[in-house]
Amino acid sequence: MKYLKNKQVKIRKKSDYYTKTLKRRTSSKATIGQAPGTPVYVGQKLDKELYAEVFDYNEELFTEEQLNDIEKVYPYIDSKPITWVNINGLQHTSEIQKIGSYCGLHPLVIEDIVNTNQRPKLEEYGEYLFVVLKMLYLDSENSLVIEHVSLILGKGFVISFQEAEGDVFDPVRNRLRANKGILRTMGADYLLYVLMDAIVDHYFHLIDEIGNKVEHFEDKLFDKDSDESFTLEVQALKREVLRIRRAVMPLREVVNKMEKSTHSVISEKIIIYLRDLQDHVVQVNESIEIYREMTWSLMEMYMTAISNKMNSVMKVLTIIATIFIPLTFIAGIYGMNFENMPELRFRYSYFVLLGVMVVIFALMVLYFKKKKWL
Amino acid sequence: MKYLKNKQVKIRKKSDYYTKTLKRRTSSKATIGQAPGTPVYVGQKLDKELYAEVFDYNEELFTEEQLNDIEKVYPYIDSKPITWVNINGLQHTSEIQKIGSYCGLHPLVIEDIVNTNQRPKLEEYGEYLFVVLKMLYLDSENSLVIEHVSLILGKGFVISFQEAEGDVFDPVRNRLRANKGILRTMGADYLLYVLMDAIVDHYFHLIDEIGNKVEHFEDKLFDKDSDESFTLEVQALKREVLRIRRAVMPLREVVNKMEKSTHSVISEKIIIYLRDLQDHVVQVNESIEIYREMTWSLMEMYMTAISNKMNSVMKVLTIIATIFIPLTFIAGIYGMNFENMPELRFRYSYFVLLGVMVVIFALMVLYFKKKKWL
Amino acid sequence: MKYLKNKQVKIRKKSDYYTKTLKRRTSSKATIGQAPGTPVYVGQKLDKELYAEVFDYNEELFTEEQLNDIEKVYPYIDSKPITWVNINGLQHTSEIQKIGSYCGLHPLVIEDIVNTNQRPKLEEYGEYLFVVLKMLYLDSENSLVIEHVSLILGKGFVISFQEAEGDVFDPVRNRLRANKGILRTMGADYLLYVLMDAIVDHYFHLIDEIGNKVEHFEDKLFDKDSDESFTLEVQALKREVLRIRRAVMPLREVVNKMEKSTHSVISEKIIIYLRDLQDHVVQVNESIEIYREMTWSLMEMYMTAISNKMNSVMKVLTIIATIFIPLTFIAGIYGMNFENMPELRFRYSYFVLLGVMVVIFALMVLYFKKKKWL
Amino acid sequence: MKYLKNKQVKIRKKSDYYTKTLKRRTSSKATIGQAPGTPVYVGQKLDKELYAEVFDYNEELFTEEQLNDIEKVYPYIDSKPITWVNINGLQHTSEIQKIGSYCGLHPLVIEDIVNTNQRPKLEEYGEYLFVVLKMLYLDSENSLVIEHVSLILGKGFVISFQEAEGDVFDPVRNRLRANKGILRTMGADYLLYVLMDAIVDHYFHLIDEIGNKVEHFEDKLFDKDSDESFTLEVQALKREVLRIRRAVMPLREVVNKMEKSTHSVISEKIIIYLRDLQDHVVQVNESIEIYREMTWSLMEMYMTAISNKMNSVMKVLTIIATIFIPLTFIAGIYGMNFENMPELRFRYSYFVLLGVMVVIFALMVLYFKKKKWL
Amino acid sequence: MKYLKNKQVKIRKKSDYYTKTLKRRTSSKATIGQAPGTPVYVGQKLDKELYAEVFDYNEELFTEEQLNDIEKVYPYIDSKPITWVNINGLQHTSEIQKIGSYCGLHPLVIEDIVNTNQRPKLEEYGEYLFVVLKMLYLDSENSLVIEHVSLILGKGFVISFQEAEGDVFDPVRNRLRANKGILRTMGADYLLYVLMDAIVDHYFHLIDEIGNKVEHFEDKLFDKDSDESFTLEVQALKREVLRIRRAVMPLREVVNKMEKSTHSVISEKIIIYLRDLQDHVVQVNESIEIYREMTWSLMEMYMTAISNKMNSVMKVLTIIATIFIPLTFIAGIYGMNFENMPELRFRYSYFVLLGVMVVIFALMVLYFKKKKWL
After folding, report:
1. For residue E326, what pLDDT band results from cuts at 50, 70 and 90?
2. Which of B88, E61, E166, E333 is the most exposed place for a label (fewest CB within 10 A)?
3. Rounded distance between C-alpha atoms, residue C125 and residue C128, angstroms
4. Widest pairwise Cα distance in chain A
5. Is C33 exposed, middle or buried (0-12, 13-18, 19+ CB in 10 A)?
6. Do residue A335 and residue E337 have CB atoms under 8 angstroms apart?
7. Residues D330, C53: Cα–Cα separation, whole Å
8. How far is Cα D45 from Cα D41, in angstroms, rounded to an integer?
9. Are D103 and D128 in contact (CB under 8 A)?
10. Looking at the partner chain, which of E197, E211, E325 has a beta carbon nearest the beta carbon of A324?
């Protein structure tokens, strides 16, 4: 019971959080009136330093570096082996602009990299491919975080931009270090796929969490002490499902477009992997749709639960009132003060009356038993 | 009545089962962080041995073998007559990998064969066609089982992979043995069609079962002793319908794609059979949609049923209270102790009053009769 | 009133019928495990003999025959004039197979002719066109019958297969006999169109019947004695609408496909008539959609009707209780046995109190009048 | 208030009317069994004579005639200037057939002209274009009339067929007479556009009327004396919205098809005007969709309104009962006849008790005030 | 609390406003019967003078003028540098016609410029591109204003037409004056994009406002003193959301069409910016859809809130009645006047009875505690 209570409180806090972030996402006064192409970071300002990880590898070589100066990254990009640069901290817009112009990124691309409101998309530019996705995970407080991730696929390199450091890419890092699988034998496009796959794999966690919440609410429906917060929590869950849906739905089109791309940085042999990725994305979308329907049903179920409770309250009232009101009336009759009420004088009339009352009582109880109210 | 009760309990247990399997299907932590192409079996671990059936046939010849060693299957595949290999037990990933590489299957295909979460699809590869479907049936405890089935159609052979042995393919086996119909005169593509047809035919059973449940719930709506579990059971039925829908819906596209395929392993004369299969798939989908609508209506009907019950409870209360409260008031009047209440002294006033009360009672009853409350 | 009651009972019986037929339609264990192409009749077994009508005609000639032996039909098909063969009784699978093979029909076509679960469709074969539709009509007991009709359009002949004799084609027969209109001057494709048109024309009857039912339910909503059966009847109506929709919806595609067909048995000048037929089909579909929406609204309306009734029950209770409970309390005060209650001894206090009670009563009544409860 | 009452009555009558017309529209037993191409008028039989208006004009010339003999119209059609023939009265099928065959119209076209159930469509024939639309307006009793209008656009002439005379085309007549705008300088195709535009312009009136009704119902929701008729009236409004939608929706496709037409009677410079017309049609459709959603919301709002009312009824009952039942109990205590009840004998106990009762009463009132029930 | 009340009142006034404007938008009797191409201003008549701003610029030059005479604008349009003419006041139809014919605009274009009911669209003409959009903002009274904006993109100039002066374009003016960004180095097509971008950026404000309202209603759901106005306010919010949707939805198609346009006034390098604009439009649409779902949920939540309240009212009544009715009955027993009631004479029977009553009371309270009603 305690567990549930705590959970409820946490969900509530989260719902506030969601409402806020939803609004933050849709509006951003900071950007109104800005010239297009001006990169404006609209996420939360963290005062951590920009922090870039560089992985430079091919089948034989492997270098891993952690740099705070963006310019030190350039040689790796230019070097022959495949390079993965992972940049954490979107608030450092000027540094992102630096590396952007070094790689020849369009100003609008740089704007999209730092604009955490940008929805998932794929864009092809002359020399590179630009992918935006959303990383979904639960933070240490178990609340949903939607993180903005951008990926640049150029000739022989991938640059990834994240809002903050996270461990979603850890399996990729480990596979690079351990030279497990075919990752180090493939090109940069396979790296891009692997990174996207790591993100999509994480979606399944969230789907699970939504499933747990739906179940939790289904259990709670018939709690005796469920109160008004239920409605608000279900509304918050609806909003959460809609947000996840919005983050995940466009991915279908992104992967589809990538499959059909004829851009030079995408090689033919990657298509088969993208098809696999597409399968996963479709599977996530289908699960979200199912949970969406289940969530929407919750309010209806709650309504019937309330009505059921009200029905049982009414039954108690009705049974008590129906039994005692007629009996009280009979007692009232013999409480009248008429001078000529012959019954009052008979010796056993009081006891006879008590007997009659017991019989009436018993008949009433039987009636309610028959009606299944008792 | 007893039957219903038992049924209800069973459904409940199943609903737990469904919730669990739904979650199992959508998430699979085991696979997160795995390199793509690593086959990971996420179904239930059964410790049965891998068990392969081999049917090698043409119009004249017919061989049937049951083998536990996967390597003994190879000669049959290479042999001239049509070969059907049915492999039971997806947990034996290493053996599946062996036969996979013998037949030149792509690692992602092998991953999909053992990944029971994979949704139905058709994929064309250079030398073979890969089909994933879901076998739906009721187990001995009458609960829904969604089994993952993969089919490989190569030149002159079909390999089918099942989670566990089942009898869905029995009619096909019998037709092969009995040389009934045209099955043994046709190629491997016809065998593929026949296997898919056997699976789709089984869907109709399930549709029936859903129909029975909807009817059962419709009957139960007006049971006097229906309780809160009703809502949960309908929710479980909704989930079940959604799951079946998810397993069956993609088949439409699969068969459609197969019809239009120009892959060398698909011959022209099979198209007409695929069109027939498509008809059946569409018919299953339509039935599911109808039951979906019926199921969604159930909650609404339940709501009106509760309200109807509450209405009748209220009527009982209202009738009793409305009749006796005024009468009790009258008795109260003559129970007052004023010294000067002339009526109290008249000889027949008590009996007159009793008569008045009877008249009031009768009028009230008439009033309620007229209002159809009695 | 009596009329309505009877109607209700009939509808109920029909609803049972529908549920049964719906299930029968979707499943057919008889066919599970059968080799594809095996004709299995899944409708009701009637023991009537097969009965074939033959119309052989052109502008000048006209022959009408009724035959029980299917082989006697062959010469008419081969003869030069246009031939219409109408075969009643799908349970005679062997005879249908005979004529099928005489005309060179594919085994799957013969299977579809006798499979009453087959949904409407058009298929083009080398020498002929195969059309499946559903004939909808009300039987003598006013219940909906969905009859399976197949039409074969070959060079110079049309063969129609019906489950049982019916009068839907009567106008066509009469026009043939009377040589009215252009029917006898046109080819077999025009005959096909005329037969389909006769079937579609009959749909309008059913739409009417659905309209009557919806209206009947709307009237019944506010009946004082409507009971629980209402919900079940509306559910049955929903199911009926869904079934009709399923039978009629695919026709749109069928006629569309026929319009665009380039098959040799379809002549150019028929297109304009098919466009007209398409118009009718679209019109039927639109009407069904409207009645669907109206039917779905019925439950909502019923819910408000119940709530309205409950509201008026509550008002009666509230009025009575609110008036008499305070008055009873006052009477209770003066029924107390305190020795020192000065009011009891005043001469007119009893009458004053009665007056006070009348005033309270009047005020209460006024209050409820103002609140529009009375 | 009186206004509203009247309005309500009228709406009710209209709703009957709608139901009837809806049924009339969807079915028409008269036509069942008729050979295709037989013109059957299914609208209301009016015994007015056929009445044809002829406008013959070009930039310089202008002739206006009103004729009762259809054959007098022929010379105008053949004459060089643009001719507009407006024929009122579809029940004169034989005369319509006459002019139809004079202009070379297909029998099916003539059937569609008099078949008032025909849905809006555009059909291209060799020499002419055939357009069906619905004229929507409110008659003198303020009820919705859906009138069937057919337009034939031939080389240099337009023939319009109406069920009855109306003033929808009056602005066009006036513009022709006054030689205002470019109308007399343009061809027959522009005249067709102008006539269609006049009809579409009139739709906006109806949209307005629907808007008024929705508002009227919103106001009525909280009327104290709203009764059961509300539900039926909303249902009638739904039906009305669905009917208008059905009449207007297909226009989108009609105008679209006309824009893309390459028929010789449509000149290039008309396209720009058709685009404008399309804009209006889309706008009407959007408004209908909005009112549809608003109308569907009404029932839900009504349900909450009923529940709100019931809630306030319950509160009154609860307040009265909760205050007086305990007080009555106390009075009952001291009405008991035990011989040894010391309180009865104390001098001021009666007055003390009255005081206690007043205090209890006050506390109860405060409690309800705090709970906001008072 | 006061804040909320005020807010509510304001919303109500706005809702009236919306209803009115919705009707104004959909109908416009003024235009019925007008010849197509006649410009009729259907917005509110303001008696401000026409007021044109002219910006003439290229990378080096910059001129800004404010003119009241439309003819003074002509030289700027003809001049070489890029020209932006912003015309405020659509009621000056004659002056708009003047500049329209000077620039060679089609009469229908001029009609659409002043017709504030025109929905967003893009039309390509020989020499220019015509864009209609809706500017959405909150006026000083915080009510939604939907302003009609038309943009003409010709060779080297953009003319914008607004209903009234506003500050939505201020950032563009400032960027022009300050020569910030690339605006002054780009062509007229970039200016068009920048103006559209400024309008779309403003949509985010509105989305925010809708979000605030939804939240406000969610908070208000459980207010003790929420009343009937809630339903009407939610209905008004629904209508507002639908209106915004209607204004914004067509933009998707407009921008899409512009991206694919091959018109000479659109240069290739603008495409990338239009894609960015498309992203924003999609984002706005998605947010509207989410708020739409949230808004539609509000009524359902409100319904459960009412039911919850009613449930708690019923509980109070039931507790009081269930406790005191039996006790009153017992008191009634001993208030009877039978001569032979032995208990009445025992010494302590009164006190024993009081004790029994206390015990019954306590048991009842415990029972309700156990049932969680207290």
Report:
1. very high
2. E61
3. 5
4. 121
5. middle
6. yes
7. 92
8. 8
9. yes
10. E325
- Cβ-based contacts under 8 A for chains A and B: 176
Asked if this assembly's ipTM is beyond 0.95, the reply is no
Subunit contact E331:D335, Cβ cutoff 8 A: yes
Residue position matching structure tokens 């030079």: A264
Determine the Cα–Cα distance for residues C132 and C149; give it in Å rounded to an integer. 6
Distance from chain centroid for Cα C100: 32
Tell me: the pLDDT tens digits for D307-366? 988 998 999 999 999 999 999 999 999 999 999 999 899 999 999 999 999 999 999 999
- What strand order describes the sheet that includes E51-57? E62-67, E51-57, E82-88, E157-162, E144-154, E129-138, E121-124
Structure confidence at residue A137 as a pLDDT band (50, 70, 90) = confident
How far apart are the C-alpha atoms of B332 and C334, rounded to whole Å?
Answer: 9
Q: Which chains touch C (3 or more CB pairs under 8 A)?
A: B, D
- Average pLDDT, stretch E70-86? 91
- Amino acid identity of D43? G
Whether the per-residue pLDDT at C150 is higher than 90: the answer is yes
Mutation pick from A324, A333, A344, A351 vs chain E, by most beta carbons of E within 10 Å, is A324
A286·B246 Cβ contact <8 A = yes
The confidence score (pLDDT) of residue C100 equals: 92
Output the six-digit token pair for B65: 């073998």
Instruction: Assess contact for C79 and C56: CB atoms under 8 A.
Output: yes
Tokens matching residue E363: 């048991």
Q: Quick check: A155 and A265 in contact, CB under 8 A?
A: yes
- In degrees, rounded to 5, the angle at the alpha carbon of residue D26 between the alpha carbons of residues D20 and D29 is 90
**8 Å CB contact of D276 and E36:** yes
3-class DSSP state of D233: helix
Could you write out the DSSP letters of every residue in E22-45?
HHHHH--GGGTTPPTT-----S--
Cβ-nearest to C286 among D29, D246, D336 = D246
Chain D residues with CB under 8 Å of E110 CB are none
Packing angle of the helix pair B107-114, B93-102 (nearest 10 deg) = 140
- Candidates C166, C95, C107, C182; CA nearest to C134 is C166
> Does residue A192 contact residue B10 with C-beta atoms inside 8 Å?
no
Instruction: Centre a 10 Å sphere on the Cβ of residue A289 and count the other Cβ atoms it contains.
Output: 15
Strands (E), chain A: 51-57, 62-67, 82-88, 121-124, 129-138, 144-154, 157-162
Q: Is the dihedral of CA C15, C19, C21, C22 positive or negative?
A: positive
Q: Give SS3 for B67.
A: strand
Tokens for B359?
A: 């008249």
- Distance between A217 CA and the closest CA of chain E, angstroms: 15
Say how far apart CA D24 and CA D31 lie, in whole Å: 12
Using the predicted structure, report yes or no on whether residue E163 has a pLDDT greater than 90. no
Determine the longest span between alpha carbons in chain C, in angstroms.
121
3-state SS string for B208-258: HHHHHHHHHHHHHCCCCCCCCHHHHHHHHHHHHHHHHHHHHHHHHHHHHHH
For chain C, where are the E strands, in sequence order?
51-57, 62-67, 82-88, 121-124, 129-138, 144-154, 157-162
Query: Buried b / exposed e across C82-116, counting CB within 10 Å, b at 16+?
Result: bbbbbbbbbbbbebbbbbbeebebbbbbbbbbbbb
Average pLDDT of the residues of chain B: 85
Q: Residue E337, CB half-sphere, CA atoms under 13 Å: how many? A: 22
CA dihedral C351, C357, C361, C362 (to 10 degrees): 50
Least confident stretch, A157-166, B35-44, C298-307: B35-44
Determine, for residues D327 and C328 on separate chains, whether the beta-carbon distance falls below 8 Å.
no
Token pair, residue A15, equals 């719902």
How confident is the model at residue E165, as a pLDDT?
A: 79
